Sequence to fold (346 residues):
Amino acid sequence: MRESIDGSFPMTAKSSVKSERRSKSKSSHSTSRSSLVLAFLSCLAWLYIAGRLWQDAESRLLLRKLFMQNFARQPKVLTVEDKLMVLGCKETERKIAEVETELTVAKSQGFLRNHSMKSDPSGQKLLAVVGVYTGFGGRLRRNVIRGSWMSKANIEKYQEQGIVLRFVIGRSPNRGDSLDRNIDEENHKMKDFLILDRHEEAQEELPKKVKFFFSMVVQMWDADFYIKVNDNVDLEFGGLIALLQSRRDQDSAYIGCMKSGEVVAEEGRPWYEPEWWKFGDQKSYFRHAAVSVLIISRNLAYAYLKAYAHDDTSVGSWMIGLRVTYIDDSQLCCSYSGQDKVCSLA
Fold:
């Protein structure tokens, strides 16, 4: 019996060792598996956190951008002093506009005249001053005009009849360059220019040119009429003088080939008007003299206010607020085919 017990003991010890080894291998295997699972979950968590951080960073950048845009659009907070300053500036601007309007009306009614201006050598008041618009590239056209109705002989002849003739031009954007020097040399030789030193000669500046022209000639010459003519127009002075003399006693005369028409609101089209919205829903110009030839009485030569995109409509706008006699004379329609016209397109 003891032998059997002794003989079974080694067998039991061996089996226990084996089972212990199995349990250890199982536990180590389960531990490694759980480690892998934990590592995988850690990677997922890291990727999730990194993704959220990236999204949060982008969201912060987007929110910051939107905030800056909204902040830029919002009006700045003004102090009481700033508000008072703004109100004061607006009030001052309104008063200046009122004074300018009153001054213009006063000038148009004959007040504030400068008596140190030129007149006819005989002491008589001039009949008219004629300004022929020209540009830096218009020398050939000027020579053609000098060879016809604006020759030296005709200038002297019409001067005796109370009419002054001048080519009208401004200055180059680059003051003192070859364009200015060429005009100065030509004027020194021909002595038939009226140079607007304050005006910059450019196509888009033509409305301002008519302001400078009228403001300058009305202080230089005492005349009944001031006439603006384009350099592509030929004048017939016999008819023009007769027309002016027949209107000499007419107060506040605004004479020309009167017209009105559509205001061009599409940028890029000819005669585009940037301030088209000011002309109402119908987008139609007010009555005004055509650009080729326009004549105004002396008192109206002071009435230069705002300039629009074109010189003829600018002059027409100045007449609206004044007591003006509109004279629509077909003789001044240069494209008119009648025999009695005093101008024609060259």
Notes: Residues 1-11, 108-116 have pLDDT under 50 and may be disordered. DSSP finds eight helices and nine strands in the chain. The longest strand covers residues 288-297. The CA atoms of residues 239 and 342 lie 5 Å apart.
